[in-house]
């Protein structure tokens, strides 16, 4: 058996470079399982919040109150269209608008108690289901999962806000 270098493999027209198809297939299967966890955690609140609205709640929970323009930027949205979107969230009691204490022309967006409650409910449901799944694994399997997810997250990097907007993450 001879090993070929990556450059030799790349020179072959049908040679695959990177992880083998089994690694990719198993990772896709795991991603579908996690997507199921995400969907189930969001299902109970979908009558109160849409996926894009939930993403706003996630950003505000993680970063605290933000200027309207900064929030739109973090979400990858146009500020003028985001303003209309925010109006609907204010009307739904999910976020609040206030004037900045530093510049009265700036609008600050923050979570309301209801917005915080929804975020916490979804996050706790997700945490519980992940905990239940992990409890079915042995200690060494849990360590393997931990190492695998740490490595995957490191390699993938932090996704841009606009990449996860549709998923409400």
Automatic annotation (TrEMBL):
Checking SUPFAM superfamilies in the record gives: Winged helix' DNA-binding domain (SSF46785)
- Top-rank taxon: Bacteria
Q: Where is this region: Disordered?
A: 1-20
Q: Which GO terms describe its molecular function?
A: DNA-binding transcription factor activity
InterPro entries assigned to the protein according to its UniProt record, in alphabetical order: HTH_MarR-typ (IPR000835), MarR/SlyA-like (IPR039422), WH-like_DNA-bd_sf (IPR036388), WH_DNA-bd_sf (IPR036390)
Q: Which residues form the HTH marR-type domain?
A: 20-154
GO biological processes: response to stress
Renumbered to this chain, the Low complexity biased-composition regions fall at 1-16
Q: What's one Pfam family the UniProt record gives for this protein?
A: MarR
Spell out the protein name for this chain.
MarR family transcriptional regulator
Starting at the broadest rank, the lineage of the source organism is: Bacteria, Bacillati, Actinomycetota, Actinomycetes, Micrococcales
């Amino acid at each position: 058996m001879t090993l070929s270098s990556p450059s030799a493999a790349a020179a072959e027209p049908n040679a695959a470079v990177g992880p083998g198809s089994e690694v990719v297939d198993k990772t896709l299967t795991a991603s579908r399982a996690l997507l199921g966890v995400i969907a189930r955690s969001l299902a109970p609140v979908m009558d109160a919040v849409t996926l894009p609205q939930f993403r706003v709640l996630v950003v505000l929970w993680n970063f605290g109150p933000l200027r309207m323009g900064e929030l739109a930027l973090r979400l990858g949205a146009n500020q003028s269209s985001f303003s209309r979107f925010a109006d609907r969230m204010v009307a739904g009691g999910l976020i609040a608008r206030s004037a900045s204490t530093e510049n009265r022309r700036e609008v600050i967006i923050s979570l309301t108690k209801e917005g915080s409650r929804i975020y916490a409910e979804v996050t706790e449901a997700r945490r519980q289901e992940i905990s239940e799944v992990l409890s079915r694994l042995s200690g060494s399997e849990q360590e393997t999962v931990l190492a695998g997810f740490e490595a995957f997250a490191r390699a993938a990097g932090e996704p841009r806000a606009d990449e996860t907007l549709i998923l409400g993450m």
